[in-house]
Amino acid sequence: MDLDVFVSAHRAEWDRLDALLSRRRRLNGAEADELVALYQRTATHLSLVQSSAPDPQLTGRLSQLVARARSAVTGARRASWRDVTHFLGQGFPAAVYRARHWWVPAALVSTAVAILLGWWIGTHPDVQASIAAPSQLRDLTRPGGEYETYYSSHPATAFAAQVWTNNAEAAAMCLVMGVFLGLPVLLILFENMLNLGVGFGLMSSAGRLDTFLGLVLPHGLLELTAVFVAAGTGLRLGWTLIDPGPRTRRAALAEEGRAAVGMAIGLALVLFVSGAIEGFVTPSGLPTWARIGIGVVAELAFLAYVYVLGGRAARAGETGDLEEADRSSSVPTAA
Hints:
The radius of gyration is 27 Å and the shape is elongated. It contains 13 helices and no strands. It has helices at 3-22, 29-52, 56-74, 81-98, 100-122, 125-131, 134-141, 146-149, 156-176, 183-205, 209-242, 249-281, 288-315.
């Protein structure tokens, strides 16, 4: 496409659209119809320029015109309770469901790594000695030691808030760091599994594995699931850079990135629940079976939420992305 000829042929239409958008008075019926027609034509021009002759200056001008015209035609959109209901009932669970082929393997492999690390540490005294001095290990693992008092060392509300903040930050890092081909996500996952494996190994070597599981499982099932979902989504985001499929790399990254942002919000709510369990249930005087039972119920509820609601929404075409009316215009791509 000859860009100079194209600009000469359509400059008058763009200038007219700009003039209509700059009008301070209310447009009459004919002018409103003209505005809509010019908006549609300019959007088509923008797609042609982006696909055939991506000139930065012209693309910027047309993008601005299309955005202004779109706002004028559709009006400013405001978030409503309908958006919240749609997000929680369809968008978020569908996004988690669609990412299951990434986070389920991440969960299985990570859990296996944690168990192997725990077995290695628990059966090798020399490895334990490299972690801390014997007296320090006794302080960690003895009845009433640091592993147990950790969950009751602060007021429940403050502790739950701190745990929620830390876990939400870790999940957000997994989502954001996915753009670096997913490599930082693997490091974050390994660090989490290493911490879990150390506790598993040290407490098992002291003959107190049942106590450790009674402290970790009530909140850990839901908490780790949220971390695995974030990690799987981050890994999928990184893979999108390598293989965007039939979409352009830019369009694919934008779509998956928007879904990841929504995922971060949804996972923050999930981690709020796990933080509340860790702050109020884990250190409580409830029997171990009751505390673990609460954690299992929370985990099963989340999985049912994802696989029932999310699966149904995903099969109906929900992706977790913004609604079509809220997305930027994109250039069609061949299958």
